[in-house]
Amino acid sequence: MAVAGRFFVRSFSLSSSTATSTLQDIASNNYKGTAKVVLKKGKTQLFREGSPMVYSGAVDRIIGRPPPKTGDVVLVADGTEKPIGWGLYNSVSMFCVRIMQLEEEAIGDPLCALNMEKLVERRIDEAVKLRKNLGFPSNNTNAYRLVNSEGDRLSGLIIDIFGDVAVVASSAAWVEKYKPQIEGCISRLDAVSNICWRPSTEILKEEGIDLSNLAEVHPSASPERVKVVENGISYIVSLEGQKTGFYADQRENRQFIHNISKGQRVLDMCCYTGGFALNAASGQATSVTGVDSSSPALELANQNVALNHLDTRKISFLKQDATLFMKDALSRNEFWDIVIMDPPKLAPRKKVLQSAAGMYRNLNSLAMQLTKRGGLLMTCSCSGAMTQSGKFLSVLQGAASMSGRKITVIRQAGAASDHPIDPAYPEGAYLTNILLRVL
């Protein structure tokens, strides 16, 4: 099995022969020996309609001598062996092929057809243009997502920009293989001077990638911390923190809290480095309390308060377990006008969804009891399994029943606009943010 750092990327030039009319022609003329993954009967339509992930259970047979290796470009064909598209193969992952182009697109774009180096460059360029159209970066915001995996048609690749640092989250074998090409594209961005490569080691193990020599494979000269600005609020981001270091997906939801906090008493549960709390304080809340169980996160939260010259008499952070804090607050008959509940991922997989639903219900029941009658609760789930199940609202209704409260939905949102989602791959939707009125 090939491992990260030992991949070799093929380079081809298109033949100058007559124009091709099918994807098979392109392969035969320019990429001889490309293996073919043949789908089972009845499975083709799903992928013709755009689903980018070919699960191993959808594959009937593989044609190729020698057989393809992880990271190789392969054709994806229907039961008659006629190609419908092409993608990147993995011999051990549950995702046998990540489709990159369907035949019609490949024929119309022969430069990128079956050429992953060119396609990576094209797709990252397109992602840059989209973010510019969305207003990123700007004087008020230089922390944003540049590439959002399937949403930018580069499944397994996430790139977040934090000031002059690009943080790459790799969760697919092909991303490790094409690391030089990806870094080359990033290095051409005017504002970026450092690249921090953060492979998702557990996921990559499932992809068949051995990262036991991680420090050698991914040496990093990037800083440990970087200062960024989002909607005019400054943050210190730890590049060794959770995920890529900063949750840009909640940007628009944080701005909403900023807009409604004037004169309000605000509680930010599971506050991490203070994103919602800082927005409430800068939005002229009368008092803001942030609670988290992580000392490093709260250290950054307090630094962010100082960085933004906020009044420490009106914003403070406490290190405590969320459930214990809320129970203690209830025992003191303490209530808030606005409560934010943004816990970590409680349902990483569908098999734990039922138990996670119970945890969400219990946390939100306590949060509702801490919300003044007529007040607002902004509650979140970053668990893809919960969001995709469509059950979060029913969980919240169960929490309301448990707490003896009535709720109405004021607003429903997901990740920020720089986190596009491919509707053919709904599994890419993971964040749910719901604003409730609690009566």
How many helices?
Answer: 15
Number of strands: 19
- Please summarize the sheet with the most strands: 7 strands, mixed
Which spans have pLDDT < 50 for at least 5 consecutive residues? 1-18
Radius of gyration: 24 Å
Numbering strands along the chain, what is their spatial order in the largest sheet?
Answer: 15-14-13-16-17-19-18
Classify the helix fraction into a percent range: 25-40%
User: What does the average pLDDT come to?
Assistant: 92
Terminal residue distance: 58 Å
Query: Which percent range describes the beta-strand content?
Result: 25-35%
**What gross morphology would you assign?**
globular
The helix/strand class is alpha/beta
Describe this structure in words.
With 439 residues, the protein is an alpha/beta fold. The protein is 32% helix and 26% strand. It contains 15 helices and 19 strands. The protein has helices at 23-30, 44-48, 103-108, 116-134, 173-177, 179-187, 201-206, 214-217, 251-260, 275-282, 295-307, 322-331, 353-370, 384-389, 392-403, and strands spanning 36-39, 53-55, 59-63, 73-77, 83-89, 95-102, 143-148, 157-162, 165-170, 194-199, 225-230, 233-238, 265-269, 287-292, 315-319, 336-341, 371-381, 407-413, 432-438. The strands form four sheets. Strands 15-14-13-16-17-19-18 form a seven-stranded mixed β-sheet, with helices on both faces. A six-stranded mixed β-sheet has the order 2-6-5-4-1-3. Helix 12 (322-331) runs parallel beside helix 13. The longest helix has 19 residues, at 116-134. The radius of gyration is 24 Å and the shape is globular. 45% of the residues are buried. The model is unreliable at 1-18 (pLDDT under 50).
